[in-house]
Amino acid sequence: MALIKKVKGIAPKIGKNVFLADNATVVGDVTIGDDCTIWFNAGLRGDVNTITIGDRVNIQDGAVIHTLYKRSQTHIGNDVSIGHNAIVHGATIEDKCLIGMGATLLDNAVISTGCIVAANALVLSGTILEPNSVYAGIPARKIKEVTQEQMRDIIERTARDYIMYASWFNEEESGNDADR
Fold first, then answer.
1. Residues forming a β-bridge with 28
2. Whole-model pTM above 0.85?
3. Cα angle at 122 between 49 and 61, to 5 degrees?
4. Does the pLDDT of residue 176 top 90, yes or no?
5. Largest Cα–Cα separation, the chain
6. Number of CB atoms found within 10 A of residue 173's CB
7. Could you read off the pLDDT of 108-159 as tens digits, one per residue?
């Protein structure tokens, strides 16, 4: 069962149909929308400031979501995928974005709607990414526009797929596992 813990008297608020992996950690001032999935070893630490997460967001294995005390908050929109081992620290991610595996987003960065941040990219503090763009590198730089095909086949599909993946775990917990 996931670790869900109050900090300074503030408990996380978790929406409907949310999958929390057994060893996910959600503490403090964290609000999670509906149909989200928080995967194994992911940590959402709302101990020093606010974290808000929209609907249909997947935060994959090992990702860390945190903030900066009194100086930044983390806001994540709807239909966002945050890849394995990514770090989101006090950044804003607008709707329909994909954050690649191992990417790092620093305080007060804004990832505009429709962006793809490539694996292992570093988005520096205060950087504002152009909407519907692909960013890669250290520091992250725009490399191209997001195509309609990428929006449909990468960003939107990934957000939907993670809801499906979570349902597989719910089936096993309810005794519907075909291997039994």
1. 46
2. yes
3. 65
4. no
5. 52
6. 8
7. 999 999 999 999 999 999 999 999 999 999 999 999 999 999 999 999 999 9
Please tell me the distance from the alpha carbon of residue 105 to that of residue 65, in angstroms, as a whole number.
10
SS3 per-residue string spanning the chain: CCEEECECCECCEECCCCEECCCCEEEEEEEECCCCEECCCCEEEEEEEEEEECCCCEECCCCEEECECCCECEEECCCCEECCCCEEECCEECCCCEECCCCEECCCCEECCCCEECCCCEECCCCECCCCEEEECCCCEEEEECCHHHHHHHHHHHHHHHHHHHHHHHHHHCCCCCCC
Q: Which residue has the tokens 């929390």?
A: 20
Half-sphere exposure (CA, 13 Å, Cβ side) for 43?
A: 9
Q: Are 101 and 119 in contact (CB under 8 A)?
A: yes
Residue where the block lists tokens 């039994």: 180
Dist. CA 76–CA 100, nearest whole Å: 15
**Cα angle vertex 23, ends 49, 12, to 5°?**
30
Structure tokens at 179: 């291997």
How far is residue 73 from each of residues 101, 147, 164, 168, measured CA to CA in Å? 21, 30, 29, 32
How would you class 152 by CB atoms within 10 Å of its CB: exposed for 0-12, middle for 13-18, buried for 19 or more?
exposed
